[in-house]
Design brief:
2 copies of one chain form a homodimer. The first copy, chain A, has about 200 residues and is an alpha/beta fold. Chain A has a single domain (about 1-195), classed as Rossmann fold. Helix content of chain A is about 30%, strand content about 35%. Chain A is built from 6 helices and 11 strands. In chain A, the strands form 3 sheets. Chain A has a 6-stranded mixed sheet, with helices on both faces. A two-stranded antiparallel sheet of chain A has the order 1-2. Chain A has a two-stranded antiparallel ribbon with strand order 6-7. In chain A, helix 2 (about 30-45) packs across helix 3 (about 60-70). The longest helix of chain A has 14 residues, at about 30-45. Chain A starts with a helix and ends with a helix. Chains A, B: It is an enzyme of class 2 (transferase). Chains A, B: This is Xanthine phosphoribosyltransferase. Chains A, B: Its EC number is 2.4.2.22. Chains A, B: Homodimer. Chains A, B: Pathway: Purine metabolism; XMP biosynthesis via salvage pathway; XMP from xanthine: step 1/1.
């Protein structure tokens, strides 16, 4: 997705330990027009999958997920990272380790909102080691619903997540695929690196 | 906002301790068309305030905030509840107590994204005791920016938050104002209670 690659080139900051900081337009400050285009692109790519629900995880998955949901005209659920008092125990859960935050969270989705006849598109902002995406897949499987695919805004293709997901047979669509962050430079994967 | 009041009437569940559960359409599962209408309504109400930026707080403020930002065509920032490793110490912070979760969080916004010449519209899903909204106001003040006003999806008018904010002279616009949750029934404030 050309607009996204240009934004990453212009505003992304490469930090030590393979961290790509995009908090000027994706996950702290957000560009609503870019998010709208991201939503349209996910909706286009998954339009023939019979999606009935979108699932993401708080917090930075919410913006791309709701924009996709708006175009696809389906509800969106965000998994919570710990159970607030207003959620009952009536929930599907999965354990997710965050390498960035170095902590394990229980993510949960109320059983009221995922049913076995749902076809679920999973959306998240980043894919690195795949922990969050695999946790969301677990939750869909627990609900005996169908995974339509996984839509990722920025994939770090040099980490394990993408391979783990495609090896399990799931369709993965990433709008920006980063081959390397070496020497403080963003190199996109495949043909994308030529276009920018 | 009539559509919102109808949704609350139909799908809101009153729990003990004045908790109104709206997680089928606002803060767990979300209705994207409703969020779009909410965004349009906030944009309409604050259209003459010269808003340059929208500020909310993770997680459930993000959806109404980005929909408002999309209509107003300004960036949106979500305050983080604790500092992740990818944020530097270069941040405005405020302490916020959550009565629902019974815990205090430090909320933070990078100094890169709020400037003294910004006019900031604060958006959140709920207003009860006002802790989150006042924390966000503190952050705008710390940045020496201007508060355009506070837009709330659901205000519990029988709690202290609304009074605290208007007593400080800020413009508050709440799309649903709840006068009471007594006897397990949602009663809207003022004329709204007559229309539903």
């Amino acid at each position: 997705m050309q607009l996204l690659l240009e934004k990453i080139r212009q505003q992304g900051i490469v930090l030590p330990n393979n961290v790509l900081k995009v908090d000027s337009f994706i996950n702290h400050q957000m560009d609503p027009q870019l998010m709208k285009e991201i939503g349209k692109e996910f909706a286009r790519r998954f339009q023939n999958e019979g999606v009935t629900k979108i699932l993401t995880i708080e917090s930075s998955g919410i913006a791309p997920a709701i924009m996709t949901a708006l175009v696809m005209n389906v509800p969106v659920i965000f998994a919570k990272k710990r159970k607030p008092l207003t959620l009952t125990e009536h929930a599907y859960t999965s354990s997710v380790y965050s390498y960035t935050k170095q902590e394990t969270n229980i993510i949960s989705v109320s059983k009221d909102y995922l049913k076995s006849n749902d076809t679920v598109l999973i959306i998240d902002d980043f894919l690195a080691n795949g922990e969050a995406a695999l946790g969301l897949i677990n939750i869909v499987n627990e609900a005996q619903a169908k995974v339509a695919g996984i839509g990722i805004v920025i994939e770090k293709s040099f980490q394990e997540g993408a391979k783990k997901i495609t090896n399990k047979g799931y369709r993965l669509e990433s709008l920006a695929r980063i081959a390397s962050l070496e020497n403080g430079t963003v190199t996109f994967y495949h043909e994308h690196s030529l276009k920018v």
